[in-house]
Design a protein that fits this description.
The chain has 397 residues and is α/β, with parallel strands linked by helices. It contains 16 helices and eight strands. About 2% of the residues have low confidence. This is AB hydrolase-1 domain-containing protein.
Length: 397
């Protein structure tokens, strides 16, 4: 009995003589059971940090990547659609043809005539379609946004609405888009729009010609409109020198574009890219704005709607949905104010109009064509060339 008690005391004595760090070692052993999970978490966080920091570096080294993302012309949706056969998309009064603005570049274009000419269009050839451009009906040159071709559903549906309203619509696929050849760039897209405008102008006689830009296409539209205006002013000056009794003001309206419609417009491409959710994540990163500016300039990509509207003198209609998830609504509002301010100096505020759509309608970025009154809004705008309409047009319901 005594021997047993002595043994127990000896064991307690040995335990009391263990090293001071023994308890820590035991705790470490317990924590080590969870170390694999902690290690994976640390690796995941480290990987995220590497990706976060490396993306701006990659864009600096390879700025062309951002250009590919902005244009997204390589996403040739919808797939399995024959662009040479618009009738497959229920555009039975539409001619598909190609223009060549420069050597090595071919542009795919659809010419949809007004619905009222549907029967005459059946079996008609290019000459008949070309002749109809001078029938007095307004002509709308549609400049779409990035991604896909002129066959994307919301673009086709808009063409149908405009045709039903009595307008000619020419839908252009810029170089690199759809079945058009070449690679996109700001200069290239603007040149394509200018070439189509001049092609239409030589055939339209006295018909109005309006540029309609959507998203990316708004930058193309204002770029082209400013170029057309500059050409008109130069031509007016030359003619004014030859005709002493004709002023420059009498000549310019005959050559400038008759109107510009901007659907979901952005201020400029750099601000638009900066407003993207992915870019917002980097706003707190020191030097990110400089990196973005460098990358945009390396791509020669500006699309400065804000600057263009300061000098543009033609009529302008803004269409923007409050729930636009691609181009923030505030950009459309800002552009409207810029255009309005420029017109105040010219006493021509009635030439700038805006329609805004409540977020409850769900039109977002691509579905303004669903507005049942869209044809009426466009009709009033086009008629304002001779008859002023109230400013601004605002729809909130």
């Amino acid at each position: 009995m005594r021997q047993t008690v002595d043994t127990e005391n000896e064991t307690k004595t040995k335990d009391s003589k263990e090293t001071p760090g023994s308890e820590n070692k035991k705790s470490y052993c317990k924590l080590s059971q969870y170390s694999p999970g902690l290690s994976i978490l640390k690796k995941a966080i480290l990987l995220q940090c590497i990706v976060y920091i490396s993306l701006p570096v990659i864009l600096c080294l390879f700025p062309w990547i951002l250009g590919q993302v902005v244009f997204s012309h390589w996403l040739r949706i919808p797939y399995l659609v024959d662009l040479a056969s618009p009738a497959e998309l229920s555009l039975n009064h539409t001619l598909n043809f190609y223009l060549s603005p420069e050597e090595g570049i071919s542009l795919g274009v659809w010419h949809t005539v007004p619905d009222s000419q549907w029967e005459k269009a059946q079996g008609a050839g290019p000459e008949w379609y070309s002749e109809t451009l001078g029938d007095g009906s307004p002509v709308i040159i549609y400049l779409h946004g990035n991604v896909g071709s002129r066959a994307i559903n919301h673009r086709v549906e808009l063409v149908k609405i405009l045709s039903a309203a009595g307008y000619h619509v020419l839908s252009l696929d810029y170089r690199g888009y759809g079945d058009s050849s070449g690679e996109p760039s700001e200069v290239g897209l603007t040149s394509d729009a200018l070439y189509l405008y001049q092609w239409v102008k030589t055939r339209s006689r006295t018909s109005q010609i309006c540029l309609w830009g959507h998203s990316l296409g708004t930058g193309v539209a204002t770029n082209a409109a400013v170029k057309i205006q500059e050409q008109a002013m130069e031509l007016a000056r030359e003619r004014a020198r030859d005709l002493r009794d004709v002023t420059q003001a009498n000549l310019e309206p005959s050559y400038a574009v008759d109107g510009v419609i901007l659907e979901a417009p952005y201020t400029n491409m750099e601000e638009e890219v900066a407003s993207h959710p992915l870019s917002v994540m980097y706003q707190c990163l020191p030097g990110f704005e400089s990196v973005l500016h460098h990358v945009m300039r390396s791509n020669n990509m500006v699309f400065a709607n804000d600057e263009n509207l300061k000098t543009l003198t033609t009529r302008i209609l803004f269409l923007h949905a409050e729930d636009d998830n691609v181009v923030p609504f505030y950009m459309g509002q800002k552009l409207y104010q810029i255009a309005l301010q420029a017109r105040r100096q010219q006493y021509a505020e009635d030439q700038v109009h805006m329609v805004s759509y409540s977020g409850s309608l769900g039109y977002s970025h691509n579905y303004i064509y669903l507005d049942p009154n869209l044809a009426s809004v466009v009709g009033r705008f086009l008629q304002s060339k001779n008859n002023n309409i109230d400013r601004p047009i605002v729809r909130k319901n």
